[in-house]
Design a protein that fits this description.
Strand content: 5-15%
CATH architecture of the largest domain: Orthogonal Bundle
CATH topology of the largest domain: Arc Repressor Mutant, subunit A
Oligomer: single chain
Mean pLDDT: 87
Number of domains: 3
Helix content: 40-55%
Radius of gyration: 20 Å
Low-confidence stretches: none
Strand order of the largest sheet: 7-9-8
Shape: flat
């Protein structure tokens, strides 16, 4: 334990920000880390001009922030202040835009209407390829590119979603947890109406994103941002 003079405590408390139940950080240090995240994102855009944004885990790595709670707090603050944008699961600086090639734009015009028909339960890639009369591998490659630039998200192996559709599923999750911030697959399935198998896959995706954590037959909501 480091001894601290009693008259220093008020100053320390006034400069402290609570991150969670177990961690606090000084305003000065927090401000510096927020600047580091914004600078890291700006540098990443310069190195990846063709990509729409970066996910939270990657942003934390390049900014050198290992504590998940601290990273979530910083990103939530920057997003709330309008200093960074949140596009589904990707983050970018305001004003950063990516333009598609003419060929990609034409395919996107045909593909997007198929995805918005039932956004929370879009067709699997194989069925989309049939509808568009395209080879499965060619469509999968194109959709992977759309995911890279932020037009789509790939939460499961055989299905791509619009970012806003996946965010809606996340919002349903947040609204549906019980007083202990937990939920079962059955409850989530009933709340979303997307079926048991897809519900499990989406919850597993949320696990990987650090949004939920599996605890036996339950999922524990870890963060709401």
């Amino acid at each position: 334990m480091i001894p601290v003079a009693p008259d220093i405590f008020p100053e320390l408390i006034a400069d402290a920000v609570s991150i969670d139940e177990d961690h606090v950080i000084s305003h000065t240090r927090l401000s510096a880390l927020q600047g580091s995240v914004a600078d890291s994102l700006q540098n990443w855009h310069k190195e990846n001009p063709g990509a729409t944004g970066i996910n939270q885990q990657h942003l934390g790595r390049i900014a050198g922030i290992k504590n998940d709670g601290l990273l979530r707090h910083i990103i939530a603050t920057l997003t709330g202040n309008g200093e960074i944008n949140n596009n589904g699961s990707l983050y970018s600086l305001p004003g950063h835009n990516v333009e598609l090639s003419k060929e990609d734009t034409e395919l996107w015009k045909k593909l997007k209407p198929l995805l918005v028909q039932e956004p929370s339960k879009p067709p699997v890639t194989h069925d989309l390829a049939k509808s568009l009369n395209l080879p499965v591998k060619a469509l999968e490659s194109a959709m992977s590119h759309y995911a890279k630039v932020g037009y789509l998200v790939r939460p499961v192996q055989n299905r791509f979603m619009l970012p806003e559709a996946l965010d809606e599923l996340r919002q349903i999750l947040i609204k549906s947890v019980d007083e202990n911030d937990t939920i079962t697959v059955k409850h989530y399935r009933d709340a979303t109406g997307i079926g048991r198998n897809l519900s499990i896959e989406i919850l597993e995706y949320f696990d990987r994103q650090g949004i939920t954590q599996r605890q036996g037959d339950l999922r524990k909501l870890l963060r709401k941002t």
